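We modelled the chain as a single entity of 59 amino acids. Its sequence is:
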Amino acid sequence: VGVTDACLAFATRLTTTLGPLGIDVATRIVGFFVSAMGVSLIFNGVMDALRSAGFGGLH
């Protein structure tokens, strides 16, 4: 919550400092990490479902 509040409070200064290219790079990096977390959640959910269905040999 604190990081979000800080980003919102300094959004104008942050945008001016980073510029369009910096904002684009930051957006892509954050998007990559959010996608990786989503893939991890889906993978863990599928593995748990398979284990509960009787495929206990999976790691």
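As a brief sanity check on the tokenised model: The chain is about 85% helix and 0% strand. Residues 20-59 form one domain.
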